[in-house]
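User: Fold this, then the next.

Assistant: Folding the first:
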Amino acid sequence: MKNSNEKRNIHVFFDGYYFQKIYNNYLDENKMLNTEKFICDFIKYEVSDKLEIPMKRCEINGIHFYIGGVAQTNGHRLESALLNLGVNIHRLRLSPDAREKGVDVRLALDAYKCAANKKFDVMVLVSGDADFVPLIDEIKELGISPFLVCWDEEKTHTRTSQDLIDSVSPNVLMINEILDSRVNKNPFKDLLLTRVNSAASPVVNNGAAPVAQDLRSLLVETIKECEEKENGWVLGADIGLILRKVKKYEFQETGKKLNELFQDYPDIFETKTNPFAVRLRLNDQPDSGNFTAGTAAPRLNRQSNFIFNPFAQVPMSAPRLLTKQELDMEYESHIITMIEPGRDYGFIKSEQEYSDRRWNNYNFAATEVRNRRKEELVEGMKVKFSLLYDPFRSNRDNVPLYKAVNITVVD
């Protein structure tokens, strides 16, 4: 028995048919399930709470998604979102008659092998199928703590086997009940679902002034679509342009100016004047400052803000979210585009190759180069650098993308 100070390794196993049905049901209701928050934060919090250990002692180091055959349209959207998180997708080539049972058998075999080899201390099963009861019994015999993530809703005809619930109890996470509960204190439950329409933007009441919750979501998503300046600030002019032209937001409906909209939510947005700018309020966001060429501005890696758009078509071979370890690494490559007169940025070759050539490089600002002036930078220079999440390109292309920062030219 581990004490509360020891780390718990967690593996999550998805019954693909089951979870895809849940995911599609949310889409039918114009809601998008944030898979990153669901897997990496929501589940981890619930496990730590039930085991009565600090959340920082829980580490999800294995996520497995099992599906058979060829995914339908929404299936591709879901799988692309999971791939961005580094999920291991196990696609089984089975006949239609044997597909669902075959997937369950493979999941159970893989989970048992991992448990027998002591690869995890906690197994989280996302399913509602009674076929997994024998697996749960065997897992417990090995000293593994099993958890069940499930839904039970009449309107979607989603039912969870009572035998499965009994075998895992009390470690049962009935998601619809948790989301509706006023007692549950999971801080991530309000971040799981985002209202969307066919353009994957918040619902805005047929052009009328949005209700408070929808307006707040609209403003947050608009900021994410704008290009960030130093320290996460976004110019009000850029925000207003997207609100009017892209979001079709009608300011006259509320009778408020742009700055007044953001000032209504001081707990979420920070604003400044001359020129008017906004940024999301984060406790560890560094203060703004004036930076000159040759100095690197400290910024926060805000890749957790990335939310996959399920309505966009994204190739299966696409960039993924980087781990904290990868973000802390130093990389080495070479400049592939020179800084030209009148331009303050260039591109560095990435180590990956994707079908979309725009993803095969990191853009960088001249101010990020520590030991050279802009005029001295030429194509082919070898450089060392670290990576910072790029919200503007990520929201534009619907994949997590990064830019090069803290750059040093290697002599």
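Now the next one, as you asked:
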Amino acid sequence: MLKVDAVMKSQSEHTIAAPSLLIARKTTQNLALQMAPCTESGGKMAKLRGCAGARSFGLLVFSLLAAVFCFCGCATVQYRVLQPQGVAQIITDQPVQVSYAPLVYHFVRQQNRLSMQINNPTDETIVLVGERSSVVDPAGETRPLRGRLINPRSFVQMLLPPQTISIPYTDYWGWGWGWGPYWGPSWGPWGPYNGWWGPPPVSFYTVRTVFDWNWKTGPVRLHLTYDRKGTVFEHDFEIVREVK
């Protein structure tokens, strides 16, 4: 009886396990068909499924890239000089020259900002007096400008608005360095459950001063005061930023 019971138990175990094996085998075959490459060796059905999936994925990626390109490519930033009058050229990627005696200015779009180059073609040193120069931002607030020294037959360059200063720092909590499966409190590739070692994430702190301002759209007024061997002269500009 013990032997018969053992045989019957063994047959029962095989009988119960058989459907699981069939299901596992069928699942494995389906996965193999879905993952088979688009070649003759993959079989006709594998070719149809694999190629259809590749085409669908390719069309999805192409559609996303086309949408991003259209969204980013529609907006164009340009600048126009309203004052002094007589400057008809639109400022984009090609420099626009404005003669304002005794200096010559060149304006060009650069790094999503307006680059202003001040040329001194004379044989004398000219000083841009920062304490007496200013810019009125689109919000109507008066901002100071830094002074510059322009040597004879040379130039200086500045961005409007100026580039802000960013200081990197390690973004982690607590004091010092700890030991463990990860460096906290990162939840990125060095997360708490993946068992990798790595440095803490780096963030950037932006330092803003009275010289920093924003320019999305609208007009900006520049008042530039110069000193040429004791002789003071002034140049005024009004430039508008447009998004087309």
